[in-house]
Amino acid sequence: MRSNTLNEEMNNTALRYRAFGDPLTTLCAETLLLQPCIPDMLRVRMLLAPVNASDLIPITGAYSHRITLPAIAGYEGVGVVCETTPETAHLLGKRVLPLRGQGTWQQYVDCPAELAVPVPDDIDDTLAARAYINPLAAQMMLTRYSPQGQHVIVTAAGSECAGYLAQWARQSGAKSVTGIYRSAVHANRLAASGVIPLPETDSAAIRLAATKAGVVYDATGGELAEQLLQALPPRAQFISYGLLSGQPFGIQRRLPAVHWFHIRNHLGSLSASAWQQTFNDIWRRLRKNPPADVMLFPFADWQQAIAFYRQPGRVTKPLLSMP
Q: What CDD domains does the database record attribute to this sequence (predicted)?
């Protein structure tokens, strides 16, 4: 089924990359004729799409072994269904998250109908646009590596994913949560939310916190990860889910156990119904702990949005607003 407002021929502008490199110079806005939507797919007119580390890092070539070029950037966002299958006709005109299909940094996205996630009426667009990558990663890590009864450490504590990990760990029964931050602008906010703030430069305090920790959720890698691993007790668990420092880390001891977490490694085991239920849980969590404020950038100003994302001490999330 097709929306009455969707013409037979339309153009679609997408941020595409045909080689790997710096996103600011590698991405290019390309406008092409919109092709017919294939069976079992929904077509979604995008409203908003965030800028995340997980959107930018693949463009650099960090995961070149699993990316086929040319590719369209972006992994999440929210939009309105403008073309459906007969089985999903009830979604026509409704807001959904068009996930696990095409890149979302474009005006129209086609996604598998059974994986499109309907957005509840009480969730606004700016929250819905960010409901996938960071909330799902945090929820999966907390489920697999429980913080209950543990002293917890999160690194890159000013980031959105670490914020979810910290707050949801507290709600899941962690004895304490310590957040290691890079920019001092995050310290007061962390303390106000019940998280013990530690600057990345205070090595002595970090080592002391690590000696008591049972679980570490690390997005930084590099020297900080090695420092934590050297001080953690053998019974602890260290979960690595990012390398924001750009540096890997070495493992000097058999224990504590080190786990590498990537969302993509867990999606294949989720049935369509389990996938939808996962988001029912995420909506409930997000209502209690909405993320930081946002700044909207017109789609044409995507370079400014990326530059804004890279600013040290940033406390708001840039979102691309589609025309």
A: ETR_like (cd05282)
pLDDT digits (tens, 9 = 90+) for 53-68: 999 999 999 888 889 9
- β-partners of residue 71 are 17
Question: 134-264 in CATH: which number?
Answer: 3.40.50.720
DSSP code of 106? B
Per the structure block, which two tokens stand in for 16? 């595409």
What is the number of other CB atoms lying within 10 angstroms of the CB of residue 194? 11
**What is the distance of C-alpha 195 from the center of its chain?**
21
Report the distance separating Cα 223 and Cα 218, nearest Å: 12
Buried b (16+ CB within 10 A) or exposed e, 235-273: ebbbbbbbbbbeeebeeeeeebebeebebeeeeeeeeee
Pairing outcome for strands 41-50 and 11-17: unpaired
The CATH fold of domain 11-130+291-321:
Quinone Oxidoreductase; Chain A, domain 1 (3.90.180)
186: nearest Cα among 155, 211, 217, 216: 155
pTM of the model: 0.92
Interatomic CA distance for residues 222 and 212, integer angstroms = 21
Q: How are beta strands 28-33 and 11-17 bridged, if at all?
A: antiparallel
Across all residues in the chain, what is the average pLDDT?
Answer: 94
The closest of 302, 261, 316 to 24, measured between CA atoms, is 302
Helix axes 133-144, 160-171, angle to 10 degrees: 40
- Tally Cβ neighbours within 10 Å of residue 303: 15
The yes-or-no answer to whether 11-130+291-321 and 134-264 have a common fold is: no
The tens digit of pLDDT for each residue in 295-317 reads 999 999 999 999 999 998 898 99
Domain ranges, ordered by start, for the chain: 11-130+291-321, 134-264
Report the 10 Å Cβ neighbour count for 148.
Answer: 13
Q: Is the peptide bond between 70 and the residue preceding it cis, with omega within 30 degrees of 0?
A: yes
Q: Which residues contact 89 (CB under 8 A, 6 or more apart)?
A: 1
